[in-house]
Amino acid sequence: MKAVNSVFIASLLSLPIVMGVAPEAKADLIVCSTSPYKAYVAKAWYSGGRWLASGWTQVYSDQCEVVLVGDMRKTSAYIYVANENWEPWRLPKNQRSIFCLQQSRFRINNANRKCSLGMIPKTFYRVVSPGSYDYKLRLR
Fold this sequence. Notes:
Elements: H1 2-20, E1 28-33, E2 39-47, E3 50-59, E4 63-69, E5 77-82, E6 96-101, E7 106-109, E8 120-127, E9 135-139
Parallel strand pairs: 1-9
Antiparallel strand pairs: 1-4, 2-3, 2-5, 3-7, 5-8, 6-8
């Protein structure tokens, strides 16, 4: 009986350790398209005391793509979406802000500052998660 009790107690003592290593919930900014046109998505987010911007994620018709990984309740993020002719996509009129981008693939530090040569200032739209870890934006 003593051996059974020590096994039971040992398993109870190890329980918090097992629970402590549970993976954190995965959260993302996901863009989906129901439009017949391909969309190009750039994003800007606040991290490490500065605004970063990068692009381009391609979202094809009837598909979804992860644009930014992170808990969207805690991430300050904006997106810019363009079609194949680089015309801006109509997005909900959320809060807007100007960030720098380039038409080729890019990653810019301090993207909310004055744009340097080869960069274009564009209006990005804020992504606001309604209290959930991830946020899905649907393009029409």
